Amino acid sequence: MGAIYNVLLVDDEPGALLSLKYLLDWEQLGFTIAGEATNGQQALDLFHDGNYALVITDMKMPVLSGLDLIAQLRALSDVPIIIMSGYEDFSFAQKGLQLGVKDYLLKPVEEDDLVRLLKSVAAELENERMLDKKLHFGLSATKERIAREWANGFMNAEEVTERFNLIDIHVRERSGICCIAAELDSEAWNDSSMTDNDLQIKRFAARNVMEDIIGLSGCLFEESDMKYGIVLYSDLDEVERADVIARISLMSQHVQQYAKIGITFGIGKLVHAINEAVKSYEDAKRMLDKQFFFGKQSVISEERLFSKEANDDEQNWLHANELIEQLDKQDSEQLRELLTHRWELLAKNQVHSNLIKTMILELFIELFRLVKEQGIDYEQLFNPRQLDYERIMGARSLTDLFQITWTKVQETAELIKSHRELSSENAVKVAKRLANERYADNISMKNIASQVYMNAAYLGQLFKAETGIGFNDYLFQVRMENAKRILSSTDMKVYEVAYAVGYNDLDWFYKKFKQHTGLSASEYRIMSARTIIPPAMI
Known about the structure:
Rossmann fold; 4 domains; five-stranded parallel β-sheet; 10 strands; 56% helix
C-alpha cells in the first residue's frame, strides 16, 4: 500500500461531518481525516497550518463560502478539491468546476460515489508522489555523482560549476570548501546474527543521519559499502574550520546514537578554490588512515596530530616509498640494512626528534595502507591497543625509535608473507568449511579472517563475489538447515535445538526459523514426522 494522505473536511452541519467521517473506511482507501472545519475561514486557517492532500467542502457556509474558500485555496495550492452540493446549489458547483476542483458529490453523499472519487484521487496522488520521488532520487544521484567525481579530481572547476548550476546548486569557492572521509565500523559486519538486510538498514540509517546534518551545505557520496566522502561548502556564509569540526563531531554522535553503528571521520584541510577540493579530500583520507593511532569512532583532523616545529627541514629523511618497495620484495636483510642507513643519516644530520617522530608516524600510515590495500587483516598490527602513537611520542632516544620502527616493519613483512601463502580461493573455502563445522559457535567473518590473514571486510567481499550471498546469510542458511535436520531426527527441545545451532536468544531463533521455513519450529517437527524427508533436502 502507498502513503496515507491527509483529508480536510469542511461542512457547517456537524451531522453531515459526522456522517461523512464514518461513512467508510478511509484508511483502507489511503486517506485519513486530519482536519474538520465548520466554515470556509476555519478551513483556510487549518490548511495554512497543516499538510493536506485533499479538501472536501460544502458550498453554502457562513463566514466564508465554499466558493470563496476554493478561490483562496487555488491561490495557494493545486490541492485536489471535491465539492459537496445539493441540486439547488448546482450553479455554485459549476463555478467551482471552473476553478479547477476535482469533482462534485450530490448530497446526501452516497458511499459508492465517494469511494469511486477517492480511489481516483488516491491514484493521482500516488502517481505524483512517485514522480516526485523519482525526481528527488534522480537529483540526489546526480548531485552525488558530481561530488564524487569532483572530490576525486575527475572534473575541473568549470565542469563542477556548470553541472552543479544545472541542478540549482551554487558553490562560492572563496567561502571555503572542506572534504571529509568517513568509514563505518566493521564490527557490525562481523556480527553473525545480522543478515545482509539488517546491515543495509544500518547503512541506510547512517546515511540519513549524515545527510540530515549536512543539509544544503554540502554533498555526501558513497565510495564503497562502508566508506563515504563528504564535500562541505556554502553559497552564502564563510565555511569556518571550527564549525566543520563541530558539525562532524555531532554527526559522529548521532550516527552512533540513532543508526547504532560506529563511524570514524577524517577531516581534510579547508581550501578556497574548487580545483583544490581534491587536495582536501586526499588529506581527509590520510587523516582517516590514522585511525589505528586514535581508535575507531574518532573524528581525526590535523588539530589532533602532533605538529612538528616550523623551523625543521621538510625533507623526508626516511624515504618511506623506498622502504615500502623493499618490504614488498620480502628481503629482510636488505630491508634492515636500508633502515639502518636511514638512521645513520638522521644521526649525522642531527634531525630534530619531533620531525623524526612525525616521519615515523607517516611511515606507519604507509605500512597500514599497504596491508589494508592487500585485503589483509590489519587489526592485529594496527590498532590503538598497540599504543604505537604513545610509544613513538614517548621514545627518548634515536635507538629506541629505531627499535620501534624496525619491529613494526618486520611484523608487517611477516604478515604480508603469511597472507600471500594463502590464495583468495582457499580463504573462501576455509570460510565455508568453518561455517559448516562451527555453526554452533559464536563464529564471525572477523575471527575467520584473522585465521587466513585477511581483512574481514575484504574477505567478506570475496565471499559474496564467489558464493553470491554474504557470509552472514550463508551462516544463517547453514544454521537453519541444521535446525531442520535436528528437529526432524531428534526429540531435542526447541530451546536445545536453538542453542545447538548457535542461537542463545530463543525468541530470535523462533522469529528467524519461521521467516526461513514459513513454519514455527514445533509445526515443522510435526510436519516432518508425517513426511519422509530425503536427506538431500535437509
